[in-house]
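tool=predict chain=A
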Amino acid sequence: MHLPLLIALLAAPLPALAQGIGSPEAASGVIQTYYAAIDRGNFRGAYQLWDGDGRASGKSYANFRNGFAATAHTRVTTGTPRNGDAGMSQRWIDVPVNVWATLKNGKRQHFTGYYRLRRVIEGVSANPRDSRWHIASARLMLAR
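tool=predict ok
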């Protein structure tokens, strides 16, 4: 390989790798997508971002949807994903969040905490969807 080409390759950004389906940025993107779906009233889409097609939320779809019945609008900001961990064939990561909700009665709420996301490493499952991040759990508290 010629030296100028090698230097150009090393200096070039690698957005495809940094933004891959298993990247920390992709994990943050799942949370952004989750709240965008809630904000649009696409509760089925939001529910399915939970692991096990919603089962990891700990709620039936009807209870999940009803939990947002009083919500008029949401907004989320995500922090830098942290605590990435690996199991035998799984990856885990925590995405810190600030969530602001406006209820239909005009009351506003602010929650802080994090979402823990899980995925299966590529090549382990025959289902390519398994290698994408899914919400495994959430720890949110009402901010004071």
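Residues 89 and 105 are 46 Å apart (CA to CA). Strands lie at 71-78, 82-86, 90-103, 108-120, 134-142.
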